[in-house]
């Protein structure tokens, strides 16, 4: 997804909106569409034209849509821009750093960017947050910021609406998401790291469920144990299970999933394995379940933070108890942590009666003693390979265009040894091969058959390290 990489990007996309005596800021969200505050162009309803300042000339705009309740407007420019600002629908978090951009002084065409943070969440106003910045002065009029972008996480997360003393109030993209989507403006949804990563979103459609393991997990959840460990060799499908498992008993609720490693992650691998980042993610998860809001980012001491975390855990346990439910947190890839004991330190050995944690790992030997001493057959689940019939069914479904013979399907299933990861690699590789087959061979009258020669080092202790597939086309 597109991201803002510099303040120059912001300046190039922001414009000064003029409608009669009213002035404010707008910004491009596509080559021709502009977002601004409705009150900036309100006089357009009586025929006053809307324009924006571009260098030494003015460009006309057409009002496409307005929402007076939200105080938001979408304009269409007569001129085209090659750059625009991406939008992000995100939960607003007190203390989160942000930037306000625009033309605050109505008498000048001077563009400014103020760096600040979210000061307060608002509930009884069209604005749902306020921003503070050291440059903001209660004695100065910043009306020109109206309609300008509020930027966080390298995307626009809100627009500025009004000045209140030495703060600027704004409305989040999340609050006006429906209005914007009705007019086909693209919006990215924020990923908060306590849910299934988007890289795994196609797993359900392209993976055969390991029912044997699912059944064993359901049986473990019935016991009095509150820590459950899922173990299996690399490639056995632990991550797939962590991403897709839903308890059979509807009173058992998986409310969060944390992955220490995901493929093609946009962040450094060091971030997910950081104990501090893990703690922050859990704080946000617990707080969002209890209050619908993320935890404040205001600085507090480590002791205060741990006390607050313990309070969140107690509150979460009471929350699920009141609903006669058991909340389940799944943590996958715990082996990736440099110091597992330190990583899991904020979580107590004795969890609340309505709170359970599932850990997925390759080796139980690495699990801290505060947890491992509680493990036995009732709360230890081993991931077994998929049944060969499941493998064959998945191969036939995913590679139906190749019209593989039963012999080749069976050969692929055997070579995968029931390991979902290896099976997925094989299927994806063969799909790439199929795309390279000339169309005259695919569509010609002569039948073709794909015969792959496969070498696969299943036994590598570090997971799959060697695949060699040589296609031959037989007629």
Quote the average pLDDT: 87
What is the CA–CA distance across the termini? Answer: 44 Å
CATH superfamily of the largest domain: P-loop containing nucleotide triphosphate hydrolases
How many DSSP E strands?
21
Roughly how many Å is the radius of gyration? Answer: 28 Å
Helix share of residues?
25-40%
Structural class: alpha+beta
Helical stretch tally: 14
**What overall geometry do the principal axes of the alpha carbons give?**
globular
Please outline the major beta sheet. Answer: 6 strands, antiparallel, barrel
> Which fold name is given in CATH as the topology of the largest domain?
Rossmann fold
Tally of separate domains: 3
Judging by the overall fold, what is the CATH architecture of the largest domain?
Answer: 3-Layer(aba) Sandwich
The CATH class of the largest domain:
Alpha Beta
Strand order of the largest sheet: 1-2-3-6-5-4
Unreliable spans: 444-452, 456-475
Structural features:
475 residues; 14 helices; Thrombin, subunit H; 28% strand; Rossmann fold; disordered C terminus; alpha+beta; 27% helix
